[in-house]
Amino acid sequence: ERPIIVAIDGPAAAGKGTLARRVADALGLAYLDTGSLYRAVGLKVLEAGQDPDDADAAVSASKTLTVDDLARPGLRGEGVADAASRVSAIRAVREALLAFQRHFAHSPPNGLRGAVLDGRDIGTVVCPEACAKLFVTATTEERARRRHEELRARGEAPTFEAVLREMEARDARDAARAAAPLRSAEDAHVLDTSNMDVDSALRTALWVVRSRC
Ligand code: C5P
């Protein structure tokens, strides 16, 4: 039996993570936040005092990655997000992380019948065969507002303008890179969450999965 694979892509703070987790819970599927892989590589490189644009450093970090690295508390900060976006533009880093992601999708842990993966290139590169694809977006202002609130709730205190600028820089880099740039798959359902609460986004997502998988 083929696993149910749900691909959820989109820019930073569009609501992918929350949505992906809720879809996985509702359908009894495994969940993988693929951004945490790139964040873990970025964090390793920073901790080693190396430069996230240094391909050799980033590739070695991606080859020594373990599952424990994906749950580290330092992963969610802004500095790590920036490093993640830099290491993720290096083609050899993306290739080193590909097999893990595909294996997770096709052989989900705990005998579950499928998996939800969220990221930037799940529907286009990692799992183009996914039965359901969602491209989740929101306006840059709205995403910066959400990210700003999230950072403040965690005790970080950047200004809204700083968060907005950082978000624009990261979006531009993710969309402009040659290796697996951020874009919607042609067969993805586009979901703009700018004026949508989590429950209505979930209803739409579940409808897409149930009608396509
Ligand atoms: O989703 P999140 O913001 O945690 O991802 C951090 C960074 O990792 C993104 O800005 C992006 O550069 C990179 N990423 C990626 N491909 C993925 C997931 C994340 O390039 N599938």
From TrEMBL:
UniProt keyword annotation of Nucleotide-binding present: yes
Keywords from the UniProt entry: ATP-binding, Cytoplasm, Kinase, Nucleotide-binding, Transferase
GO molecular function, one term: ATP binding
Family note: Belongs to the cytidylate kinase family. Type 1 subfamily.
GO cellular component: cytoplasm
GO BP: any one term: pyrimidine nucleotide metabolic process
Organism: Limimonas halophila
Residues involved in ATP binding: 10-18
The reaction(s) this protein catalyses: dCMP + ATP = dCDP + ADP; CMP + ATP = CDP + ADP
EC number per UniProt: 2.7.4.25
Pfam families for this protein: Cytidylate_kin
Compartmental location: Cytoplasm
Annotated protein name in UniProt: Cytidylate kinase
InterPro entries according to UniProt: Cytidylate_kin, Cytidylate_kinase_dom, P-loop_NTPase
Ranges where the Cytidylate kinase domain occurs: 6-204
Taxonomic lineage from the root: Bacteria, Pseudomonadati, Pseudomonadota, Alphaproteobacteria, Rhodospirillales
